[in-house]
Amino acid sequence: MLPFWIALQFLGSLPIRLPGMPRPEELGRSLLFYPLVGAVFGTLLLGFNTLLSGAPLMLHAALVLTAWVLLSGGLHLDGLADSADAWLGGFGDRERTLKIMKDPRSGPIAVVTLVLVLLLKFAAILALIESHASVWLLLAPVIGRAAMLGLF
Q: Membrane-spanning residues where (predicted)?
């Protein structure tokens, strides 16, 4: 069960305490639980979505997006911002790119990238709610976390 808690702690912002430092094999096994963590997040999002039924659609979508970002702790957004700053701000210069990656501050490219991505997510969530296809609020986190397995 420890690998599940490791995965939940890594992929989310829920206050999970582990009983010490995980062993490498436990870290490796935690990858198998990434889709299950996605299912937990998706279930929470779907439940929150149901609670919001009847709310104005744009507010509804904005609150679901906020919950989604809070659940994940913005982990993917932070990585995206760093990558956008480095790749686009580094102008192909390896040294400049590495220097930007080490800088804890976000530049204008990171901010623009995050704004655009969050606007796209908001529009997608709004479209799902309007078309009564909210089951994708459950499936999207599962698919996203399962896709991560292909990287390892």
A: 31-51, 57-77, 109-129, 135-151
Distance between CA atoms of residues 51 and 137, nearest Å:
14
Amino acid 95: pLDDT = 87
Q: Tell me: the pLDDT tens digits for 100-144? A: 888 888 888 999 999 999 999 999 999 999 999 999 999 999 999
Please tell me whether residue 5 adopts helix, strand or coil conformation: helix
Q: Which two tokens stand for residue 101?
A: 């990656």
What does the chain come to in residues?
152
Residue 98 lies in domain: 2-151
In 3D space, the residue among 62, 70, 34 whose CA is nearest the CA of residue 148 turns out to be 34
Residue 14 has pLDDT above 90, yes or no: no
- From 40, 46, 62, select the one nearest 145 (Cα to Cα): 40
Alpha carbon distances (Å) from 39 to 42, 103, 121, 149: 5, 34, 19, 15
Residue 25 burial (10 A CB sphere; 0-12, 13-18, 19+): exposed
Domains held by the chain: number:
1
